[in-house]
Amino acid sequence: MTKEKRFTIKVAIIVAMGGFLMGFDASVISGVVKFIEPEFQLTKLELGWAVSSLSLTATLAMMTAGPLSDKYGRKRLLKYTAIIFAISAIGSALAPNFIIFIIARMLGGFGVGASLILAPLYIAEISPAKMRGQMVSFNQLNIVLGISVAFFTNYLILQLGQSDANWVQSLKLGQWNWRWMLGLEILPAIFYYVALFIVPESPRWLAMNGKEEKALEIMKKVTTEEDAKQQLKAVHESVTGDIKKEKVSIKELFKPAMKLVLTIGIGLAILQQITGMNAVLFYAPMIFEQSGIGTDASFIQAILVGLTNLIFTIIAILLIDKLGRKPLLIFGMAFMAISLFVLAYGFNSATYSLSKDDVKGLPTEINQSQLDPLIGQTFDDELTYKVALIKVLGENTFNEHESGLITVAVSINSILILLGILGFVAAFAVSIGPIMWVMFSELFPNRIRGIAISFVGLISSAISFAIQFIFPWELANLGNTMTFLIFGIFAALGFLFIVWKVPETKGKSLEELEALLVR
Question: Is there a contact between 89 and 108 (Cβ–Cβ < 8 Å)?
Answer without folding.
Answer: yes
